[in-house]
UniProtKB/TrEMBL annotation:
Residue ranges of every copy of the Glycosyl transferase family domain listed in the record: 179-340
Record's protein name: Glycosyltransferase EpsD
UniProt organism field: Urbifossiella limnaea
Listed PANTHER family: GLYCOSYLTRANSFERASE
Keyword set, alphabetical order: Glycosyltransferase, Transferase
InterPro entries: Glyco_trans_1, Glyco_trans_4-like_N
Enzyme kind, highest EC tier: transferase
Domain Glycosyltransferase subfamily 4-like N-terminal: 17-167
Pfam family membership, one: Glyco_transf_4
Keyword tRNA processing: no
Length: 371
């Protein structure tokens, strides 16, 4: 792979699982002699972009307003022609569409990731066709591989490469963090994170916490993330808690992996996905209470590194968390098991090798080809 020049197309480099995986992968590929570059189809002023640039990886914004944006496509073709990649790796549905346009008519081979749920309408149809035409599709889990098969991706073109996580950074000073969040020095914390939008996950977390707060008067729920649904979620908190509000919206926090070390439990309540948050919690040695969606069942060992409950079961989230809060020794045992599992099965230090094998196995075509 020493001569490889890989162009990574990213639909988004915001606070997404794909962006976090790219930020882990590309510096490691570069250390192995690969020359990576990133073209992001949205905002490039993000934490992942900053981290990639700090590692010496070129990141350029090539915004595409729509699938029919001629100026955006022209800019992307110009960038690809100048870089002359040996392969294009697209992350996200819109990136897969754009990558297909670059790989056609003798262009570089296309690898696709993070696009198992392409959506509906013309965009979903176009992304699905691009997935079927890709030279290789990388799934992060068996569940994701099944989703690709349902979209018509043939098995021979599928490769499973598990997600990765780094060792947790040092836990920050507890008193300083609590003071920054406006919490009392005796506060006990549950942490969760996600995009703030009208979905079941965070609203269910607020509901589950409302069950627990009567038993644990010093317990607080900290929600990390931003999004358009913050006002609605805040109103929901107020409607439940009245004058005993102990749910706190911390906004986007680049230091989330470190903050997790202060939690007594981490909630991962997404009907789909949530793998990166679960892995970061495990790496920090924190027990996880999660909805048992197909992605998380491959990461969290129920009864060993945390608890998996049925998707949508708020009462069981509270009940399982009650056990962890009431028996600190059990919580510590769960956390230690999770930390060991993260290091053994999902070590970021080993993530570059399977991707390098994928790139080595791609068909050889001329560099920089474009329509």
């Amino acid at each position: 792979m020493t001569a490889a020049r890989l162009l990574f197309l990213a639909s988004d480099l915001g606070a997404t699982g794909a962006a976090k995986q790219l930020a882990l992968l590309l510096p490691r590929l570069a250390a192995d002699g690969v020359t990576p570059a990133v073209a992001v189809l949205g905002n490039d002023d993000t934490d992942a972009a900053v981290r990639l640039r700090a590692a010496g990886v070129s990141v350029q914004a090539t915004p595409l307003r729509s699938a029919f944006d001629p100026a955006g496509r022209r800019k992307l073709r110009t960038l690809a022609a100048a870089f002359a990649p040996t392969a294009v790796h697209a992350w996200g549905p819109s990136a897969v569409q754009a990558g297909r346009a670059l790989s056609r008519w003798g262009g570089p081979p296309l690898v696709a990731s993070a696009a198992a749920h392409p959506g509906t309408g013309f965009g979903g149809w176009a992304a699905t066709r691009a997935l079927r035409a890709a030279d290789r599709v990388v799934a992060a889990s068996w569940a994701e591989a099944d989703a690709y098969r349902r979209l018509g991706v043939v098995g021979d073109n599928l490769t499973r490469i598990p997600p990765a996580v780094e060792p947790a950074p040092p836990t920050p000073d507890r008193a300083a963090v609590l003071n920054d969040l406006g919490l009392p020095p005796t506060a006990r914390l549950i942490l969760t994170a996600g995009r703030l939008e009208p979905s079941d996950g965070l609203k269910s977390a607020i509901w589950a916490f409302d069950i627990l707060r009567y038993t644990f008067p010093d317990l607080h729920l900290v929600v990390v993330g931003d999004g358009p649904g913050r006002a609605d979620l805040d109103a929901f908190v107020q409607s439940l808690a009245f004058d005993d509000v102990r749910v706190h919206f911390a906004g986007a926090r680049p230091d989330l992996p470190a903050l997790l070390g202060l939690a007594e439990a981490v909630w991962v309540l997404q009907p789909r996905g949530g793998v990166n948050l679960a892995l970061e919690a495990m790496a920090a040695g924190r027990p996880v209470v999660a909805w048992g969606n197909p992605d998380l069942t491959e990461v969290v060992e129920d009864g060993e590194t945390g608890f998996l409950v049925a998707v949508g079961d708020k009462a069981q989230v509270s009940a399982r968390t009650h056990v962890l809060l009431s028996v600190p020794a059990s919580a510590a045992q769960f956390g230690a098991a999770g930390k060991a599992r993260a290091a053994e099965r999902f070590d970021a230090g080993r993530m570059a090798a399977p991707f390098a094998r994928v790139y080595d196995e791609l068909p050889r075509r001329s560099r920089g080809g474009s329509p």
